[in-house]
Amino acid sequence: MSVKPVTITITGAGGQIGYALLFRIASGAMLGAETPVRLHLLEIPQGVRAAEGAALELQDAAFPLLHGVEVYDDPRSAFEGTEIAMLVGARPRTAGMERGDLLAANGGIFGPQGAAINAGAADGVRVVVVGNPANTNALIAASHAPDVPADRFTALTRLDHNRALGQLAATLGARVGSLRDVTIWGNHSATQFPDVSHATVDGEPVPHLLAARLGGVDTAKEWLVDSFIPRVAKRGAEIIEVRGSSSVASAASAAIDHVRDWVHGTTNGWTSAAVVSDGSYGVPEGLVSSFPVESVDGAWRIVQGLEVDAFAEHRISASVAELVEEREAVRALGLI
Ligand SMILES: NC(=O)C1=CN([C@@H]2O[C@H](COP(=O)(O)OP(=O)(O)OC[C@H]3O[C@@H](n4cnc5c(N)ncnc54)[C@H](O)[C@@H]3O)[C@@H](O)[C@H]2O)C=CC1
Ligand SMILES: O=C([O-])CC(=O)C(=O)O
Questions:
Q1: How far is the CA of 336 from the centre of ligand 2 (A)?
Q2: Is the ipTM of this structure higher than 0.90?
Q3: What whole-number distance in Å separates Cα of residue 213 and Cα of residue 141?
Q4: Which of 27, 38, 174, 235 is spaced 20 to 30 A from 284 at the CA atom?
């Protein structure tokens, strides 16, 4: 039986993350070895040649699952019939740019893209925003797509989640695959809260394991506050310093993890994704904030009923306050 190809639109496809994403998607790493794909690459006119070059290389890679590649510079055509939209292209902050300028420039991108998704995307479209500021860009896109259910818009915090797994695995001498139930709360920014209070390794609570490994409960707490949390939250800056360029392959890999789990379901505990808040854990309704989430029957569900202690509550509130500020700023600019 032949399976109908899934149409995937990737914006910023001529950029660095685009280049790392396209070949893995076409190889089947995102939707599986049984699912053919059609790729729609959206760029601005200056980026079209780079996207066309990537399309030539995709042809040369001869992926059996790849049923077509089209390059566009017009969002309406690029999102026509799309089932998965990966919004990577964004306006980076440049020297002298104020926060308001950055939000306004991105509003000019994500507003029209949200409207194009509203106009032409397939029913059940899934959207993940990677381009920064990812949470608020997703909020802007969702607000321009009134006919698409809000839970179809998400932003990527899976990279932060994966970074937290990597740090814990290295510190505990554990396999990444044995770790579960880590959470990233809040914004994809330095205020995010990577939370290990419910995490386990092969069923053993991570806080206990850290205390045993690091010489006591107090030392473990110090390590979490002074080392782990800032390292995960500022890992993007560390990568830029060491590599001389921002995270690309790890970001693309996380975006693939996000979509794969959304479509196929989570199996090893929960993961993290920024989804539209329904008011859970006191996060104001409508904000696109990172939560512990499970994917069940093709939809993200916020994990309910977790105990949140005073320290966690303080950290979550700080990141959520930043998201509220960003929402106020884009509202004041008339972008939502
Ligand atoms: N959420 C996350 O975890 C992460 C987010 N990022 C963000 O991802 C974004 C992309 O990063 P890179 O690929 O390294 O940047 P890049 O600058 O290499 O590529 C961005 C591409 O987007 C294109 N573009 C700009 N405006 C566009 C529009 N309106 N429509 C279509 N394409 C457009 C540009 O022409 C460029 O080719 C950045 O905003 C970066 O900050 C990066 C790493 C992690
Ligand atoms: O700051 C950036 O552009 C890259 C980023 O989001 C990250 O590495 O987490």
A1: 24
A2: yes
A3: 45
A4: 235
**Is 258 noted as a catalytic residue in this protein?**
no
> What is the DSSP-derived secondary structure letter of residue 203?
T
Residue 88 CA: which ligand is closest? 1
9 CB near ligand 2 (under 6 Å): no
In three state form, how does the secondary structure of 160-197 look? HHHHHHHHHHHHHCCCHHHEECCEEEECCCCCCEEECC
All structural domains of the chain, each given as residue ranges with its CATH number in brackets, are 6-155 (3.40.50.720), 158-328 (3.90.110.10)
Taking the centre of ligand 2 as the mean of its atom positions, its distance from the CA of residue 188, in whole angstroms, is 8
- Best probe residue, ligand 1, of 82, 106, 246, 256 (max atoms within 8 Å of C-beta): 246
pLDDT reported for residue 159: 98
**What global pTM score does this model have?**
0.98
Count Cβ atoms below 10 Å from residue 105 Cβ, excluding itself.
Answer: 15
CB 157 within 8 A of CB 199: no
Q: Which residues of the chain have pLDDT under 50?
A: 1
Q: Which residues contact 79 (CB under 8 A, 6 or more apart)?
A: 9, 40, 42, 85, 113, 116, 117, 119, 120, 121
Asked whether residue 130 is marked as a ligand-binding residue, the answer is yes
